[in-house]
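User: Predict the complex with guanosine-5'-monophosphate.
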Amino acid sequence: MRIENDIKLGFKDVMIRPKRSTLSSRAEVTLARKFKFLHGGDAWQGIPIMAANMDTVGTMEMAAALAEHQLFTALHKHYTPAQWKTFMETGGTAITEQIAVSTGTNDADAKKLAVILAENSTLRFVCIDVANGYAEKFVDFVKSTREKHPGKVIIAGNVVTGEMVEELLLAGADMVKVGIGPGSVCTTRVKTGVGYPQLSAIIECADAAHGLGGQIISDGGCKVPGDVAKAFGGGADFVMLGGMLAGHEESGGQLVEKEDGSKYKQFYGMSSETAMEKYANGVAEYRASEGKTIEIPFRGSVSDTVLDILGGLRSTCTYVGAQSLKELTKRTTFIRVQEQHNEWFGE
Ligand code: 5GP
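Assistant: Here is the predicted structure with guanosine-5'-monophosphate placed in the model:
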């Protein structure tokens, strides 16, 4: 047994210190970024915020809505090749720079991925997603995907430490997804005791990735636009959101109407009992569910939420004098705090 004594930080442990700035308005801030990838193909341009590849968030409807704002969607892995074909023919091709096809890591997943990519050659982004990115089998899957699909941009995760980020980039990933346990409907930390405070994970993993010319995606734990700003301030290249984009018209999950007329949308973790019953005939005896199922008050169209997030982010940039999102991390000084916002009248 060993103890690491360095303090590791989450979003709630810091605030961003304001700095003297020459910017006079939020309108002067550019949120779009341009990235070159370590292995796969041409540069990418857009606003680097991404809907999570959960079946309640990473839907085709969400992808269409977010692409209008230049945001990205990692579509969930349960779409069939037939659904992909129809989607690409009815608008998907036009937003191919804003979508990724997700996959698990077994043989059937690899075959399905190959079919989807063969039938939709304009697709450029592949998201290989497992709960625990530390398994050797996972690294092997990243390697074989890189060999089979050399021109694609490969996202791989999830991990939380620099050495594993490096290993995945060297195995063929372009971007590594970072986050174990911070998710809004995740119970991994409760069930297993495993995890890493998200802001420290971002800071350490970004350093490792940038040293090799790769990128990281901060995945999970953002509850408010300020957390998204802190993730970018810590060095995240992309920020992936689940809960913040759930509960909308474009989200998946059942719409529930209560007797008093109030509306809710179901939201659940991808390893919750709900998801396992839907896709894997229940929770296998050897594993525990590591996700929750909740109901979120219905929030209408996702566009309003997106504008709120982007407005917050522009404002962060003006507070620290960053003319573009790219500059935000250079201009960020975090201060450690023991308080966040005033909760007297609610959130
Ligand atoms: P959020 O933005 O809601 O805080 O976090 C979204 C992330 O939570 C997802 O992208 C994914 O990495 C993670 N996640 C989704 N479902 C589950 C689950 O059932 N269990 C765990 N441990 N994590 C989950």
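The CA atoms of residues 119 and 201 lie 37 Å apart.
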